[in-house]
Specification:
Helix content is 52%, strand content 19%. It has a five-stranded mixed β-sheet. By secondary structure, it is an alpha/beta fold. β1 and β2 form a beta hairpin. The longest helix has 34 residues. It has two domains: 126 residues, Nucleotidyltransferase, domain 5 (2-Layer Sandwich); 44 residues, no CATH class.
């Protein structure tokens, strides 16, 4: 013979199960990076799609992405395309937050023709690569000697460009105002 439980006991059991499920959900994020926006897809440990989000490429957008992901569960790992270029800012923030991040290689064009090309598809592919263990690359660090050299080279290029533009401007001004002919070609 079966005994029925009162409704208030069922409600407590349902709440307890729901609380345990939300706490234990570990998620993997995949992020497709671009100049103006990043598209993220969240998957659970079994590869089930939990959601998609598009954010602007600034600190507020990165924080929005992290907040959204944390509402879905515990962020276990993140796969980011282009951590050395458009994804560099996001990769730095994830590192500062202590979230394991992997560099994901962009899909090959021939593979894109098969499955289609869209930002959510690319973001999901990045998350699946991390889940499968095929995305093992470490994001580029934005500190140390390599970063100092990169900053110095960028400064040199900017300075050389400004100096060249200034010289051309001076020569053009001389030609107009004094009537001096150009003796060399720039």
């Amino acid at each position: 013979m079966y005994k029925l439980l009162p409704f208030d006991i069922w409600e407590k059991i349902d709440v307890h199960i729901a609380d345990r499920m939300s706490v234990e959900t570990k998620i993997t994020l995949g992020v497709d990076t671009h100049k103006d926006t990043h598209v993220a897809v969240a998957l659970d440990g079994l590869g089930r799609h939990l959601g998609t989000l598009s954010v602007p490429t600034n600190t507020a957008g990165y924080r929005e992405l992290l907040g959204w992901a944390r509402e879905l569960g515990i962020i276990e790992q993140v796969g980011v395309e282009g951590t050395g270029s458009f994804g560099a800012g996001l990769a730095r923030l994830l590192k500062a937050e202590g979230i394991p991040t992997r560099e994901v290689i962009r899909p090959k064009r021939r593979d894109q023709y098969r499955s289609g090309k869209s930002d959510p598809i690319d973001a999901e592919a990045a998350a699946r690569a991390v889940l499968a263990g095929t995305a093992t690359g470490k994001p580029k660090d934005a500190d140390g000697q390599v970063e100092m050299i990169r900053a110095l080279r960028a400064t040199c290029r900017e300075t050389a460009g400004a100096l060249f533009c200034s010289s051309v401007s001076s020569m053009n001004s001389l030609q107009r105002n004094v009537g001096v002919r150009r003796c060399c070609r720039i």
